[in-house]
């Protein structure tokens, strides 16, 4: 949080194509972690992010702005200038003795200059916080 400074909150929201929790294809609900984690990699640069679950989507964010999940200026800059963004998810509980590992990912082409123009347009259009229902647990 940045004190009393208010800035528009930009979020990366993930909408599922099917009903149910965010999970790898074929995974049973009882296999899901109680503390899922994620990261965003842009051209090899890693940004650890939190996963916040809302009614019909998940939000990925690397900071908060007045209590709301938000994308940092650094992450937005990387999205604007990058060519490939990889979203990595660790959603399944590991077996005893097994190291935590990412079990799902999505690769997104940011398209360099045109992607930068899109991020710039979103930054210009951003107004106020619109997602008050995001929370950090699955319940």
Would you summarize the structure shown here?
The chain is an alpha+beta fold. Helices cover 17% and strands 36% of the residues.
Describe what this molecule looks like in 3D.
With 139 residues, the chain is an alpha+beta fold. The protein has helices at residues 73-81, 112-125, and strands at residues 12-15, 32-42, 45-53, 57-61, 63-65, 68-70, 84-92, 104-109. It is 17% helix and 36% strand. The strands form two sheets. A six-stranded antiparallel β-sheet has the order 1-4-3-2-7-8. A two-stranded antiparallel ribbon has the order 5-6. A hairpin with a 2-residue loop joins strand 5 (63-65) and strand 6.
Average per-residue pLDDT, rounded, comes to 82
Strand order, largest beta sheet: 1-4-3-2-7-8
Estimated structural class: alpha+beta
Quote the beta fraction.
Answer: 35-45%
Q: Which overall shape is indicated by the principal axes computed on the Cα atoms?
A: globular
> Helix coverage percent of residues?
10-25%
Unreliable spans? 128-133
Sequence of secondary-structure elements: EEEEEEHEEH
Major beta-sheet overview: 6 strands, antiparallel
What Rg is obtained from the alpha carbons, in whole angstroms? 16 Å
Q: Number of DSSP strands?
A: 8
The number of helical elements comes to 2
> How far apart are the first and last residues' alpha carbons, in Å?
25 Å
């Amino acid at each position: 949080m940045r004190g009393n400074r208010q800035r528009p909150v930009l979020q990366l929201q993930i909408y599922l194509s099917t009903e149910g929790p965010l999970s790898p294809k074929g995974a049973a609900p009882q296999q899901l972690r109680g503390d899922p984690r994620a990261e965003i990699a842009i051209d090899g640069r890693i940004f650890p992010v939190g996963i916040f679950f809302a009614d019909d989507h998940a939000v990925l964010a690397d900071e908060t702005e007045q209590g709301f999940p938000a994308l940092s200026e650094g992450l937005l800059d990387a999205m604007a200038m990058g060519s490939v963004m990889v979203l990595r998810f660790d959603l399944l509980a590991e077996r005893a003795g097994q190291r935590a590992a990412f079990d799902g990912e999505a690769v997104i082409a940011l398209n360099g200059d045109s992607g930068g123009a899109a991020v710039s347009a979103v930054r210009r259009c951003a107004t106020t916080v619109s997602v008050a229902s995001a929370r950090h647990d699955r319940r």
